[in-house]
Amino acid sequence: MIDILSDYALPFLVILTVLVFVHEWGHYFIARRNGVRVEAFAIGFGPELVGWNAKSGTRWKICAIPLGGYVKMFGDADPASAGATDDSAFSEEERRQSFHHKSLGARSAIVAAGPLANFIFAILVLAGLYMIEGRPYAPAVVDAVLENSAAERAGLQIDDRIVSADGAEITRFSDLSRIVFDRPGEEILLVVERDGTTREIRVTPDPVTETDRFGNELSFGRLGIQSNQMTVEKLDPLNAVFVATAETGSIIKQTLDAVGEMLVGVRGTEELGGPLRIAEMSGTVAQSGIVMTLWFTAVLSINLGLINLFPVPILDGGHLMFYALEAIRGRPLGERAQEWAAIAGLSLVVMLMLFVTWNDLMRFDIVGYLGSLVG
Q1: Of the residues 233, 250, 284, the one at which a domain ends
Q2: What range does the domain containing 270 cover?
Q3: Is residue 82 domain-resident?
Q4: What's the whole-model pTM score?
Q5: Are residue 128 and residue 272 in the same domain, yes or no?
Q6: Quick one: which of 191, 206, 223, 308 is 20 to 30 A from 178 by CA?
Q7: What is the pLDDT along the chain (375 residues), one digit of tens a residue?
Q8: How many domains would you assign to the chain?
Q9: Pair 248, 364 in one domain
Q10: Which one of 24, 247, 271, 280 is the catalytic residue?
Q11: Which H, E and C letters describe the chain, residue by residue?
């Protein structure tokens, strides 16, 4: 039990706390820049364990349930900013400090700042890794062609250098892998350099299904070539930030593509994981060393920011959706409409959490375990 807590629960809570702090600090920072009084900055929910008052009047606190956090601004009816308190008795100064009396642009910036902070944090972490540890990569040169593979059938040979794939420039083996991964069974036009000349080769990646070390079943494309060369390139600060930003954009795109495939039924929902799976992954990467832990934290930060931008009421994206409607209508949605939307959004989030937790329990075979106890 102690090993489980130290190996899995503790890394999970540390990583989650860092990401929650980054997210809520984004809201807090932009709110303060816009003159909003912040009443509370909380890590966790439930009863306060420890806290202190800042000169600004903000109550900074750590709460008993360490699975989230919030920033409560002056004028909010609740920590989720789902509505405003009765402001009829507010003084003019209090109105100036109230979140709900700020301009539409200011409110939108404050809400968007949380996810944006997660993206910026991920970029800085990745950039730091690229500058200090370097960015390992394999050049797009074929060192081996597997028998009976799509590459062999297409005529790829050892020492071929892949120049482009369907018009996209290829400089690293990972560039090609990323394209092939998403294209099982779909023809790809490769431009290949061989013996000083270039030629076009059409290849159709074989569809493959595998289970990764976290228990996720993945379907992807495979060519059947290998590059055994490996180079570690340490980037200067400017290039590190540029590459980290591009990598962040790529992760966002891949995540959105996966969600879209799940919605249309092309991809299974068994890949979705909840707190138990994230805890398992946190513990696994923590045991792999600081570099893998930082990389995982950056990826999780990107996903946290992206999920919060989904247009679901009670999430940041839901608030931004309401503000967009306000901009179009020229006035906010009615209080009753916002209340019903908040209830619907909360219900959706709760159902999703139950679903992913059920996925986790099924993957851990909790039913079989409980049955063995009864038997």
Answers
A1: 233
A2: 119-134+236-375
A3: no
A4: 0.75
A5: yes
A6: 308
A7: 445 455 667 888 888 899 999 999 999 999 999 999 999 999 988 899 999 999 888 999 999 988 889 999 887 766 656 556 666 677 888 888 888 889 999 999 999 999 999 999 999 999 999 999 888 778 888 888 998 999 999 999 998 999 999 888 888 888 888 888 888 889 999 999 998 899 999 999 998 887 765 566 677 888 988 888 877 888 899 999 999 999 899 888 888 887 777 666 655 555 555 555 666 666 677 777 888 889 889 988 998 999 899 888 878 988 899 899 889 888 777 777 767 776 776 676 666 666 555 555 555 554 443 444 444
A8: 2
A9: yes
A10: 24
A11: CHHHHHHHHHHHHHHHHHHHHHHHHHHHHHHHHCCCCEEEEEEEEEEEEEEEECCCCCEEEEEEEEEEEEEEECCECCCCCCCECCCCCCCHHHHHHCHHHCCHHHHHHHHHHHHHHHHHHHHHHHHHHHHHCCEEECECECCEECCCCHHHHHCCCCCCEEEEECCEECCEHHHHHHHHHCCCCCCEEEEEEECCEEEEEEECCEEEEEECCCCCEEEEEECCEECCCCEEECCCHHHHHHHHHHHHHHHHHHHHHHHHHHHCCCCCHHHCCCHHHHHHHHHHHHHCCHHHHHHHHHHHHHHHHHHHCCCCCCCHHHHHHHHHHHHHHCCCCCHHHHHHHHHHHHHHHHHHHHHHHHHHHHHCCHHHHHHHHHC
24 is an active site residue: yes
For residue 56, give the amino acid letter: S
> Residue 50 falls within a domain, yes or no?
no
Residue 220 maps to which CATH number? Answer: 2.30.42.10
The first and second tokens of residue 158, run together, are 């050892």
Residue 346 lies in a domain: yes
Residue 353, domain member (yes or no): yes
